[in-house]
């Protein structure tokens, strides 16, 4: 089971990324836990410069942008 985290303090882009990730997980049938992380200290622990960020199994896959739905699906596959 994958552990997927969407890092962001609650802006519109962060919410959009979370929604896209949840849709991608559902569409792919991947077993995953999706977590929205809004705690600034936890976000900073990933050493990213900007949000939103996508973390899969504790590895930062992208930050500072919203990847396409296809990119998200390939990252979680």
Any overview of this molecule?
The chain is of the alpha+beta class. The protein has one domain (2-76): Glutaredoxin (3-Layer(aba) Sandwich). The chain is built from three helices and four strands, in the order βαβαββα. It has helices spanning 12-28, 40-44, 69-76, and strands at residues 2-7, 32-37, 53-56, 59-63. A four-stranded mixed sheet has the order 2-1-3-4. Helix 1 (12-28) packs across helix 3 (69-76). It is globular and about 30 Å long. This is Redox-active disulfide protein 2.
Looking at this structure, what is the CATH superfamily?
Glutaredoxin
Which percent band covers the strand fraction? Answer: 25-35%
Number of β-strand runs: 4
What is the makeup of the main sheet? 4 strands, mixed
The radius of gyration over CA amounts to 11 Å
Shape: globular
Helix tally? 3
CATH topology: Glutaredoxin
Question: What is the oligomeric state here?
Answer: single chain
Q: What top-tier CATH class fits best?
A: Alpha Beta
User: What does the average pLDDT come to?
Assistant: 95
Counted up, domains total 1
Strands across the major sheet, in which order? 2-1-3-4
Helix and strand element order: EHEHEEH
The assigned CATH architecture is 3-Layer(aba) Sandwich
Structural class: alpha+beta
Distance between the termini: 11 Å
- Taking pLDDT < 50 over at least 5 consecutive residues as the criterion, the unreliable ranges are none
Helix coverage percent? 25-40%
Protein name: Redox-active disulfide protein 2
InterPro entries: Thioredoxin-like_fold, Thioredoxin-like_sf, THIRX-like_proc
Pfam families: Thioredoxin_3 (PF13192)
Keywords: Disulfide bond, Redox-active center
């Amino acid at each position: 089971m994958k552990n997927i985290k969407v890092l962001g303090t609650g802006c519109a882009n962060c919410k959009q990324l979370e929604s896209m990730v949840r849709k991608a997980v559902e569409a792919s049938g991947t077993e995953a836990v999706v977590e929205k992380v809004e705690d600034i200290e936890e976000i900073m622990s990933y050493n990213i410069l900007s949000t939103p960020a996508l973390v899969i199994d504790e590895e930062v896959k992208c930050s500072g942008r919203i990847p396409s739905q296809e990119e998200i699906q390939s990252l979680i596959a």
